[in-house]
Structure prediction request, 402 residues.
Amino acid sequence: MQAAGIIIEYNPLHHGHLWLLEETRRLLGPDTALIGVMSGDFVQRGDFAILRRQARAKAAVESGVDLVLELPLSWAVGSAERFADGGVQVLLGTGLVGHIAFGSECGDVDAIQRMAKALLSPELDQMVRRELAKGDSYAAARQRALAALLPSEDAALLESPNNILGVEYCKALLRRKSTIRPLTVRRRGTGYHGTELEGGLASATLIRSLLRDGEREQALDLMLPDMKAAYLEEEAAGRAPVFRETCQRAILARLRSMSESDFAALDEGGEGLWNRLYDASRKAVSVENVLETAKTKRYAYTRLQRMVLWAYLGLTPADFPETVPYLRVLACNETGRTLLARMRETALVPVLTKPADVRRLGPEAQELFELEARAADLYALAFPELSAAVGGSLWREGPVIR
Prediction:
């Protein structure tokens, strides 16, 4: 049995995601086992997931993924580069994966690999620094530098979010000299950030927007059936939908209690962005207002979102680990259980199926798990019903077995 990996958020799971699963099996064979590496309660753009990890992992397994492993928090809420590297580390850690499959706007894996190699070329950094001196964002500066190294059609790849993640996956594979082969499927339907229905397929952004606007029935109709069922179960328990705004007083309290040095520790680039965030947090009366006040042409909105989330969760980028210390199982089906049995021989790092097992591991693994547990308790404060936000959930809940 060959295995392919996918790096996912499923926030929420929709028909475009199912298309990737089906196409991967069509291209690699119907018996291909699929291993998903999924973000926990928080997602890469620096926001709360619409549903907690257990519900999304359950829907994933019931919709065609065989085994769901967790992408640890400090990778799940990192830059696209860190997010991708963490996902690749988890897939490599299984010792089973032959391909990594991902959606892209271009559908051209050769072009994505050319871009990845260009981004790792030694001369690119100097070219980007020269462009940054002109005052644009890093993304814009890098785009101009790449245009000088690559054909225009290749350089344009980084204008689309799924292409960007695909490039980052390929970069991570190249850095780690991995034999895992990339496989891309052209994305269908609404674009990643699209807010209009296209070809009957909705983006996760559109579904979340509908939920936020009170268009519940339309949002539910755009989810896969198993995702809809998981959502309704969580909603009935007072745990869905989860939006950052629900606990923004807690977030603002955290921001206003932080010192200038605390904010400075959030600024990975050391560019002084923390000053804008610090000043905005003293005046703004909502998290959205903090972000809008701090935003400039040079700094991406998602970067600010991540900094605010790091502040709320007590994360400091300088303390982020470089190596994933364990593989935590979130959900599996019968095929997934077979994979787990094989991983007893192939896995390069310990596999956690019970929370208590982390106590047998080293201090780095224990520290990461305790961080995850604290973050899960802070996530729960955004449940619609505060009575559902009992702490300690991560220590009590094991994998979903189907």
About this structure: The longest strand covers residues 97-104.
